[in-house]
Design goal:
The complex is a heterodimer of chains A (349) and B (469). Chain A is an alpha/beta fold and 349 residues long. Chain A has helices at residues 8-18, 33-45, 56-68, 79-84, 86-94, 121-125, 143-160, 170-174, 213-233, 254-268, 286-294, 308-317, 336-348, and strands at 2-7, 23-26, 49-52, 73-77, 99-105, 136-138, 163-169, 176-181, 205-206, 237-240, 247-252, 273-278, 280-282, 298-303, 323-327. Chain B folds into two domains: 14-251, Thiamin diphosphate (ThDP)-binding fold, Pyr/PP domains (Rossmann fold); 269-468, Pyruvate-ferredoxin oxidoreductase, PFOR, domain III (Pyruvate-ferredoxin Oxidoreductase, domain 3), CATH 3.40.920. Chain B has helices spanning 31-46, 80-90, 102-108, 110-119, 159-162, 168-173, 189-207, 222-225, 229-243, 269-276, 306-319, 332-335, 366-372, 405-411, 418-430, 435-445, 452-468, and strands at residues 52-56, 71-74, 95-101, 124-129, 180-185, 213-218, 247-251, 294-301, 323-328, 338-346, 358-363, 376-385, 399-403. Classes of the chains: A alpha/beta (349), B alpha/beta (469). Chains A and B meet through strand 1, helix 2, helix 3, helix 5 and helix 8 of A and strand 1, strand 2, helix 2, helix 4 and helix 10 of B. Bound molecules: thiamine diphosphate (TPP) and iron/sulfur cluster (SF4).
């Protein structure tokens, strides 16, 4: 076990290397460029592959190619780049190719700015490209989790043959925290569906085209069964002080750190406030939210967007309880003091 | 077509195809079928069937995997060169064939083909130029001839509006890396023989690890051209090949050197860990006597060592078994020459790295003091760099210490260690961490390892002066 002070962006590269990733394809964009920079050094130094594509369109298709060859592959970008990858992400899903993509979110729309936001939630969690597909989406909240989640992403991607997103933000990339580089160095094993340029794999076909509607529907149904399996198996979240709470912050990513501070302060003030932090955005912890909603606890969806996650919270609780929104956008970040004031007023007023 | 033997590389029965499993889906007289038979023959002649991975584009040849008994990847429209680039980097010994139409390669996929060519990817590209979008029903392609009427140029291709037919082979020939760039045609028997040879050559180059080969093939689309198969071949000879001259533009097969092995061997086990975990070990000290979170902000301008000083402070805290976060001022803020960093330390998990109020402000210049002193908690601390700041903080509810940090750092010949001097002072006054842990963490924060000794002396000197005060 090695411990190091490092940036979230760098931790992702270490996580990828330990997760057995052998091929990184990059295209620079703030605030994700450091991931490509660090990868260009360590991937090459350790005999793995780093290659800079000519655009994000090209990069996502490079992931498609390398994943067809059975390799553990990844890229990292931010909103504008992820948007360009939409078609390729859909092809990956259609062809059931595993891949890992990091989105270090910046503020939008358009060129926006390079401050943190969570405005890519809908694009990433709902799929983003054409057709009925989903990505697994993990939401780290610390540099250590940038390492842990990225490492784990490769296992999940292969297990379910899906794209796994790491949905971070500008601050998570920049913050340095101590990170334990732990666990075994993972390796990908030969897959029976991939191509290796040899006799045994020669008749394998990587494709997403099914000409007959009945075949295409069957393929769609297979994908949906896979997504249902993912929902049963890997939903992940953590709770703080929810047992007796009358108000709960629902949150993810860097915002959960701010909520954590607020909950601590509110408890000191004697107010029954807790929080539920999502670690997976797809799958979404629908069941748990519903359970809490039945207790008539008020939910406050706290996020750096116009309420994109709040919509999923509302869908989950299906009218069982009140879901409020606390949003900031454009690179502005809420302060825990603001949340303390908001909750205090709500509970006392 | 009789002169082209059907190779074993093509399936005998097209089991992946709906309907008749014996005939291809191509229209009568279509160039695709002929070209694909030639490619199959070359694969057989070179004995590389098991190694081949055939990239089907989006276009009429999207179903090439019906026919080729090789590895097959169906690619998105125009992106096959990117797919092939990556596949080849996973399996160097595979033989990658990118088979693309003119909409695919010369329209939507220009970036991918140009850059794959420019990187000299060791792959073989067959560019089927039929001057139309066949698959979608015969719309105008980038290669459509001037005046030609198509579904989307109903009055004929107009040069002023649509530009002229694009000459991909000539464009690619301007690049330094390609080994072979040629244009051939599937028309007369004579041209077909040349085409066959060129296809073989493009594949042989890849087998020999020579690099990027590009063969543009003028090919008939009788359906979109609204002519008979025979007329279509005449059209290629008489018209198409005057706009797209046949010939070889680049052939360096005899002069280039084959690819060698990678400079960096694939590491695993202990070698791998040693390669990725650089910079030496963390110091280990006693658990610091800290009960609650503590936030320290270091603020000044670029060149005072604000960020690296913060790293040393954070590492010293880790050495004392604390959790830490280090968050710099960010992005455009840094361009103006300002620099600041907030280090939060905590006996357990740091709640938020975005400290809203701070326990200690280390102000390295006057604007930083003015900008941030309001953030200091009541009865917190402000450390003032008295070398550069000649006014007092406005706050009267905090403890203030003055340290001539710039002077001390300059005297030591280390202006970039100004922040470190202040941090030493902070440790001296606060007693949360130890000077030893700071010194033992220097190697983790300093880029120039040769300066560790001088920095150490500077820290000790600072403490000596403060003690004597
Ligand atoms: C992103 C995208 N845009 C458009 C299409 C529709 N499309 C399918 S084939 C094609 C053109 C094919 O023409 P070409 O590459 O010349 O091949 P041909 O069919 O003539 O062999 C187009 C535009 C698509 N599949 N994907
Ligand atoms: S439309 Fe043209 S290119 Fe397509 S199969 Fe028919 S003849 Fe060939």
């Amino acid at each position: 076990m090695h411990k190091r002070l490092m940036k979230g962006n760098d931790a992702a590269v270490y996580g990828a290397l330990m997760g057995g990733c052998t091929h990184f394809f990059g295209y620079p964009i703030t605030p994700a460029s450091e991931i490509a920079q660090t990868a260009s050094y360590y991937f090459r130094k350790t005999g793995r592959t780093y290659l800079q594509g000519e655009s994000e369109v090209s990069v996502i298709n490079m992931l498609y190619g390398a994943s067809s060859g059975g390799a553990r592959v990844m890229t990292a970008s931010s909103g504008p780049g992820i948007a360009l990858m939409a078609e390729g992400l859909s092809y990956l899903a259609g062809a059931r190719l595993p891949a890992v993509v990091i989105d270090m979110q910046r503020a939008g729309p358009g060129l926006g700015n390079i401050w943190p936001e969570q405005g890519d939630y809908a694009m990433v969690v709902k799929g983003g490209g054409q057709g009925n597909y989903k990505n697994i989406v993990l939401a780290p909240a610390s540099a250590q989790e940038m390492f842990d989640f990225t490492k784990q992403a490769f296992t999940l991607a292969e297990r379910y043959r899906m794209t796994v997103f790491i949905l971070g933000d500008a601050y998570l990339g920049q913050v340095m925290e101590s990170v334990e580089i732990s666990g075994e160095l993972e390796q990908s094993e030969r897959k029976d569906w991939a191509l290796y340029g040899d006799k045994e794999s020669r008749r394998n076909l990587i494709t997403s085209i099914y000409m007959s509607p009945s075949d295409m529907e069957a393929h769609n149904e297979l994908l949906q069964r896979q997504y249902a399996k993912v929902e049963r198996e890997i939903v992940d979240y953590s709770e703080t002080d929810t047992d007796d709470a009358s108000l709960i912050f629902i949150t993810y990513g860097i915002v959960s750190r701010i909520c954590h501070g607020a909950v601590k302060r509110l408890r000191e003030l004697g107010l029954k406030v807790g929080m539920l932090r999502l670690k997976t955005l797809f799958p979404f912890p629908k069941e748990r939210l519903k359970e809490l909603a039945r207790k008539k606890i008020t939910f406050v969806a706290v996020e750096l967007s116009n309420g994109q996650m709040a919509e999923d919270v509302r869908l989950s609780v299906d009218g069982l309880t009140k879901v409020l929104s606390f949003n900031r956008m454009g690179g502005e970040v809420m302060k825990s003091q603001d949340l303390v004031a908001f909750a205090t007023e709500y509970l006392k007023g | 077509m009789e002169q082209i033997k059907t190779s074993d590389v093509l399936y005998e029965e097209f089991f992946r195809k709906d309907g008749d499993k014996k005939i291809t889906h191509y229209c009568p007289g279509c160039g695709h079928g002929t070209i694909q038979k030639m490619i199959a023959q070359a694969i057989e002649d070179l004995g590389i069937q098991d190694r081949v991975v055939f990239l089907s584009p989006v276009g009429c040849s999207v179903f090439s995997y019906y026919y080729f008994d090789t590895g097959n990847i169906q690619c998105s429209h125009g992106r096959a060169p990117a797919v092939g680039t990556a596949f080849k980097r996973v399996h160097e010994d595979s033989i990658v064939i990118s088979y693309q139409g003119d909409g695919d390669l010369a329209g939507i996929g220009t970036a991918e083909i140009i850059h794959a060519a420019n990187r000299g990817e060791n792959m073989s590209v067959f560019f089927i130029n039929n001057a139309t979008y066949g698959m979608t029903g015969g719309q105008m392609a980038p290669t459509t001839l001037l005046e030609e009427k198509t579904l989307t140029s109903p009055f004929g291709r107009d040069r002023k509006r649509d530009g002229a037919p694009i000459k991909m082979a000539e464009m690619i020939a301007t690049l330094d890396e390609p080994v072979l760039v040629s244009r051939v045609a599937v028309s007369s028997t004579k041209e077909m023989l040349k085409t066959k040879k060129m296809i073989y050559k493009a594949l042989k180059n890849q087998v020999d690890n020579l690099g990027f080969s590009f063969v543009e093939i003028l090919s008939a689309c009788p359906t979109s051209w609204h002519v008979s198969p025979v007329e279509a071949r005449v059209h290629i000879d008489e018209t198409l090949s005057t706009v797209f001259p046949l010939g070889t533009f680049v052939d360096k097969a005899d002069t280039v050197l084959p690819y060698g092995p990678s400079l960096f061997p694939f590491l695993s086990g202990e070698d791998f860990l040693v390669a990725i975990v650089e910079g030496g070990e963390l110091a280990e000290c006693e658990q610091a006597p800290l009960k609650d979170e503590l936030a320290i902000m270091v603020a000044g301008f670029g060149g005072q060592g604000v960020l690296s000083g913060g790293v040393s402070l954070a590492n010293a805290a880790i050495a004392h078994q604390l959790q830490v976060s280090w968050l710099p001022s960010y992005g455009p803020e840094m361009r103006g020459g300002k620099a600041s960093v907030t280090v939060v330390m905590s006996p357990d998990e740091v709640s938020s790295p975005l400290a809203e109020d701070i326990d200690c402000l280390i102000a390295l210049n006057s604007p930083s003091l003015t900008a941030y002193e309001h953030m200091v908690k009541p009865s917190g601390t402000i450390l003032v760099n008295s070398s550069l700041i000649d006014h007092e903080p406005e706050r009267d509810d905090v403890t203030v210490h003055h340290v001539p940090a710039s002077d001390l750092a300059k005297e030591a010949g280390l202006p970039q260690a100004t922040a470190l001097v202040m941090i030493s002072a902070y440790i001296h006054y606060s007693q949360v961490l130890t000077i030893d842990s700071l010194i033992e963490s220097l190697h983790l924060g300093l880029k120039k390892k040769s300066l560790i000794g001088k920095n150490r002396e500077l820290i000790l000197k600072t403490v000596e002066i403060l003690v004597s005060k």
